[in-house]
Amino acid sequence: MDSTPVNWEALDSLVIDFAKSENLIEEFFSSPSPLSSPSPSSSVSSSSYQSRLIIRQIRRCLEAGDIDSAIDLLRTHAPFVLDDHRLLFRLQKQKFIELLRSGTDEARDSAIECIRTTLAPCALDAYPEAYEEFKHVLLAFIYDKDDQSSPVANEWSERRRFDIAGLMSFVLRAHLHAFDPVFSMTLRYLISIHKGFCYRQGVSSPISDLTERLLLEEHDPPAVPQESLYEAPPFDEVDIQALAHAVALTRQGAVDSLRFAKGDLFLAFQNELCRMKLDVSMLDKLVHEYCVYRGVVDSGFASPSAIAKIVAPVDHIKLEFQKFLRRNRNYVTGERSKRKRWRGRQDDQDYTSGDSFHECSKLDFNATATSTNMSREQQGFEKSSPLDQNNREDKYEIVLGMKELTSRGMAAEVVEEVHALDPHFFGQNHILLFQLKQVEFLKLVSSGDHSSALRVACSHLGPLAANDPTLLKPLKETLLALLHPNEHALGKGLPLNSLATSLQSNADSCTQGSSQVTVSSSTRLSGDGGSPTQVSSRDGVCDENEILKVMEFLGLPRVDAIHLLAQYNGNAETVIQEIFA
């Protein structure tokens, strides 16, 4: 997996969309007082975000047994729930239990009043089994809540709170269209199919320590569709099976899910994904670290003096980092000014989707959650120390600085900085060195300094190509820039942003002590040893007519024709004009 190409641009887009949708970041220049309301630029106008906050508040009230507060919130924000007697019956039945649980005479009288005015009337028309459930729950009057052998032990169980909280969350999400961001749902899906694949193949997951902690085992309960379960499902069997296999449902479960979504397969898929529970607090930490690594948000280190204040041993990395900031202060400062500030869940600080399960384990009525928590402790999921976090952010700043220099075409400076960090890095990543020296060569050609450009070619490009025959072809193409000294050779050479991204993934290894290579999927080396080219949105597939036109006019092999087209956005006329110019 380490060598699998990563489309960093697509991943960045998903992560940033998640952070914005959850109101986790704000613009760096916006610094509202903790006591003041957020500025328009830092607030999220999305009604989906506000709806998700309301759903979480309702969920917390139900999990705490505060049914009245939950009903008040529903009456204000989602009155349609209270119009559904099936759901109202569930709420009032839980309210009856919570009143009895308090154990006071006043609460007991309130429980009797609840039965007379609300619970009994709802039981008459909620659903066919409701009246039997109503009669059964009345046994709570005579059986103690601590009697685990009583016929109403399940009614007394505090697990019921979390069941009804999950059910209400499911219904509210669907009706208010308050689905989680795409990144969150994608993680749920990918982790679930990864776990399923490993289980079926009988292999251990190489990322089990992450997946087991991030995606919790239990799901929110599904909503019961209003239609009769005895009716023949009016859905295509292909849709039923597709949904069942995608999210591990029984056939009947898939039918019920499609009924609830009124036959909308995509909506049913979204509903089922949102039933899966993520540890949101952990996800936020991962997103935050990713955003720091990619330079989306500021890490908090503004100057070398700020680094010096960290109470930690000054190691090689810190020394190089301070030197690095001094040498490239203007470039790093310019890059930092573009970043956003990490805001965190200030609107909903006490919420994580895992909280309810941690509480369940404390109450000792959910053995699964208890064993899961124990296994997490045994696997050593401790929080990272501030020192470890600072060290990681120091390294990220170094790599981001080098990425910024690369995107500006300052290849010579990048090579110097990388060599200062790790003299052996380019020995393990010689293609990256070749690409950086290509940039340096093309930059010198563009400026008219042909003598210096040839020195770079003789000292670096030539020896590298001599040791790696696949680099001979891109070397020849690079030298062709000397034939057009007045053109913008650098602009027609390597895509600097893609090279900068590839460098960041690779340069990270020089701070980790490994030679792991993870490249951006937007920059690839052609199969015949050609120079790196920017792959089009069609994943490098050129129009067949354009390929044949280049082959015919220029007398080139098919591979070379495709390679040239890839450099000129697939336009055959542009290729021909450039060749004969």
The total beta strand count reads: 6
Distance between the termini: 44 Å
User: Which blocks of ≥5 consecutive residues have pLDDT under 50?
Assistant: 28-45, 302-314, 352-382, 513-540
Mean pLDDT: 76
How does the major sheet shape up? 2 strands, antiparallel
Estimate the global geometry from the Cα principal axes. elongated
Radius of gyration: 31 Å
Helix content: 55-70%
Structural class: mainly alpha
Beta fraction: under 5%
What does this structure look like?
The protein is mainly α. Among the domains are: 9-22 and 179-279, no CATH class; 47-174, no CATH class; 536-581, Helicase, Ruva Protein, domain 3 (Orthogonal Bundle), CATH 1.10.8. It is built from 31 helices and six strands. Strands 1-4 form a two-stranded antiparallel sheet. The radius of gyration is 31 Å and the shape is elongated. Residues 28-45, 302-314, 352-382 and 513-540 have low confidence and may be disordered.
Give a short synopsis of this structure.
The protein has 31 helices and six strands.
Provide the descriptors you would attach to this structure in a database record.
581 residues; mainly alpha; Helicase, Ruva Protein, domain 3; two-stranded antiparallel ribbon; two-stranded antiparallel sheet; 31 helices; 3% strand; elongated
